[in-house]
Amino acid sequence: MLTVCEIFASIQGESTYVGLPCTFVRLSGCNLRCSYCDTAYAWEGGTPQSIEQIMTTVQSKGVSVVEITGGEPLVQAETPALCARLIDAGHRVLVETNGSCDIAALPPECVRIVDVKTPGSGAGGSFRAENLDALTSHDEVKMVLSDRADFDWAVQFVQANRIAARCEVIFSAAQGWLTARELAEWIVTEHAPVRLGVQLHRIIWGEEQGR
Fold first, then answer.
1. Domain spans of the chain?
2. Rounded CA gap, 32 and 72, in Å?
3. Largest alpha-carbon pair distance within the chain?
């Protein structure tokens, strides 16, 4: 059984899959409390569901791309089994994780979108260093930045660990803390080996939950 916050179809708003129709399975529970979190409603509560119940809902959406998100999906032991079941059913599976849990537990066919928490998040130092060795070329590293200090820290982290040579790296601006324009200018000026990410779903639907 897994504890589910919500399941909904929307547009993939972040990652290199941005713009594609995507069904989101948002699991409840998180082991971090980031300062800019926009899904705090998923920290607690939720409804227990079996993998088959989740599969039935996902299949009813008729969308091939599925993202498992949270909260933090890897705090639930059955998440890898859910991913395997979705892959077996022919879905492209993305898993967005905060980087503090072992991503090697996931099936290798998953696209792991691994968030490295910066000092400005309030959860700096939570990243599991072993996850760097588990990254493959189809995975992605995402870093949400709050200010210039976060940007400088993130660039140094990416360069020191040669992450851009392993997989795509996406820098995003924390909503209400930093603008996409400011971040874009820093990326260009500093020749950072990353791509700019924006939350497309929030541009379209604002703060509406389940979109």
1. 2-205
2. 8
3. 49
